[in-house]
Design goal:
eight-stranded parallel beta sheet, TIM Barrel, 15 helices, homodimer, Urease, subunit C, domain 1, 17 strands, 2 domains, alpha/beta
Chain lengths: 426, 426
């Protein structure tokens, strides 16, 4: 067993109270939360003890929308108009990607997630076998959202992957999904609706990221993306809608009613000037909310602390209300909401029987002092600087700046630089 | 001498090129930049050599507007309407501050600056003797802006401090200044205009932070703050105007013509919903630009990386142009502009004879890989996680997470918590 003692614990098991407790981990699960009796302590055998010495133990953050392997495009395609960015820079390189490229680029992203206290990603990309291998080799948790586009018969591929990747490994999952309305045929979306019904499963996709996307969709089908997806039965069993920057009141009604998770990506939406999603408003309407970084080509960091901070201040600006979007709610979105959006129902909080996806926050750094209010410190002055440890499924993968992912970080950097240079020349 | 070798150097001495060079430091100054000959190497005696091993050496960032000692209010007064924040929370505690409180609270802020690669602050607060002692004891550089308010005769105090603090210590300076139009009498501002003329010196102050501040000023004096200050001769020798969120075209003309530094504080302006300053527009109009964090009560971090990032994305959103506010320009504002706004003409870049205010950026972290473009990496995915070293005036004050400030960090945290609790009870 692994023992965390002498710390403060933010369980997020119903609220944001910080309490002095112990947490014990057996295998990949939390087996004890509380103040142990002398008898419990006598009976316990600990292979490792973490003396938190006043540091904070809390559930890991989860990144509910990303394209991990796009690390190769970081700082390669910035400060360009969207069309030039996509058509001159992103697409030509993506067309030449090999499975091995994706493997190394995803391993790099996983390192970055760990530095930011992230234990799981909801990822949309290609070369799924190589991507999955990168996660298993690193001991990282991921749920894929299938990024299919184009003609209707590609639904077969989605079904094959759904059956292949779910249940293959405890760290791996896949949700039914497709890229977006503007890259999918009507038939594909219709067929995915059938698949959702067949498996009684949620469907996830990009939705309503830019105003032109919504306007084009209305032109094509007489409906907003949300209304179109709903009319095709895609949301009958829930799902995640990535972005939702531009939504109507009717869209919000559908999202709330269907229990769809809106996954917001404030950094990417700002940098690509897509806008600011009405998250505080959606929250008032009871819509389920989660947070993601989007990919490193558009963000460019994979840093959930920056994401939570930006969400907070952009919503205050949008609402013209300095009290909008309280830190406790944002933490709940990033720890619990993002886990539940991925279907990771046992990764959402610290409680007995839950998966041990945990982080330790260093309180002995100047940005966390003095200690008036820990949730506010985390959102308003916290940063990845404060992440001392990231544990995924009971295994320490990051501790005090060092990675434990079965591969040397410097080798991953070297491989990524090498593969990036080759890809540009290819 | 101290030698930095095997690194990449971003000198910022005219542009943002990154080159393979050595930098040598003698005492508090840079004594060599370039590729040394064998003879130069033979003649040199190094007391310390930093093998950068591919990491980046660059000028330190400077924080051009802050209230350092307000660390005690971090996470104490958030998510409240402005009036309640100020009158119920901030003012009652500030009224009870002792010099010893300010000393410890400022020491905490200095630790945080160092973690974020900051070598100097442009600070506005009270209890200047204690504040100055905190900086000298820590080996940190500061220029104060006098925060006087109220009646006209207080100009004497400003003059006394101007004469006392300038020249007292190489790390300490003070600029003529006052708090803001809304807390100053007309006579005080008039008298400060006289002082500016007497010493041919710049005058600095808060200006045009909120729309109501500007509206009230127009009601009182028939002029915007910028126009009022200019009419009183306050800008005859330049100065710094903190915030400038709400400015008119005529204001911008004055600021450009007088060479006034506009110091922007994007995080504080967003969190307190003051708005987004038109920085990209001011840049096109040739206004001098610098960046600051504002105080930890309103920010709540003292993190120039977060400040640079937020400036970048908020300007893109404001301009509705993803290409707005290039990373190179933001770096120039934070390293050079902020130094020059404080009058630190020899702290602005890496060149022979300049002050050795330097930082080392860790390139071997996942968020900096792969390496396509270093300035873009610094702004779009960089963070204080990447600050390996901060040197102030030739002395290493922060290295690999450790502080070298003549006092144990944990003692500073303990003192700050103790003084904060006492202050609340007092």
């Amino acid at each position: 067993m692994i023992r965390f003692k002498n710390g403060n614990v933010l369980t997020m098991d119903g609220g944001c109270a910080v309490e002095s407790k112990e947490v014990w981990v057996e295998g990949d699960r939390i087996c004890f939360v509380g103040k142990p009796t002398d008898e419990q302590l006598k009976a316990a055998v600990f292979e490792r003890e973490f003396d938190l010495d006043g540091d904070l133990l809390m559930p890991a953050l989860k990144n509910a929308h990303t394209h991990s392997a796009m690390t190769f495009l970081r700082s390669y395609a910035d400060d360009l108009p969207l069309q030039q960015w996509l058509f001159d820079r992103v697409f030509p390189l993506e067309a030449k990607l090999t499975g091995e490229d994706v493997y190394w680029f995803a391993r790099l992203a996983i390192l970055e997630y760990l530095t930011s206290g992230v234990s799981a990603s909801f990822d949309m990309y290609f070369k799924l076998d190589d991507y999955v291998k990168a996660n298993i080799d690193s001991g990282f948790r991921t749920v894929m959202c299938h990024a299919v586009s184009g003609p209707g018969e590609r639904v077969k591929e989605v079904e094959e992957c759904y059956l292949k990747f779910n249940g293959m490994h405890p760290l791996i999952g896949l949700q039914l999904g497709f890229h977006a309305e503007y890259t999918a045929s009507y038939e594909l979306m219709e067929n995915l609706g059938g698949l959702a019904e067949k498996y009684k499963a949620p469907v996830s996709m990009h939705s309503s990221e830019t105003d032109s996307e919504v306007a084009d969709c209305i032109k094509r089908w007489g409906k907003t993306p949300t209304q179109l997806f709903d009319s095709l039965g895609l949301y009958n069993y829930g799902g995640s809608a990535y972005h939702c920057v531009h939504v109507t009141e009717e869209d919000e009604r559908i999202l709330a009613e269907r229990g769809v998770w809106v996954v917001t990506n404030p950094c990417s939406n700002a940098k690509l000037i897509s806008g600011t999603a009405p998250i505080a408003e959606m929250d008032r309407r009871g819509i389920r909310l989660a947070i993601g970084t989007d990919g490193p080509a558009s963000n460019n960091a994979l840093d959930m602390f920056r994401e939570m901070y930006l969400l907070s201040v952009l919503q205050k600006l949008k609402e013209a209300d300095a009290t909008a979007m309280q830190p406790e709610r944002i933490l709940e979105m990033a720890c619990r909401g993002s886990a539940l959006a991925m279907g990771l129902d046992d990764c959402d909080c610290i409680a007995q029987g839950k998966q041990a996806d945990l982080i330790v926050i260093d309180m002995k750094r100047p940005n966390m002092q003095p200690v008036h209010n820990i949730p506010k410190n985390l959102i308003y002055s916290g940063s990845k600087e404060n992440v001392r440890m990231t544990m995924v499924a009971g295994k320490v993968r990051y501790l005090d700046g060092e990675f434990f992912v079965g591969e040397d970080a410097e080798r991953i950097y070297a491989k990524c630089n090498e593969h990036t240079q080759e890809l540009i020349k290819r």
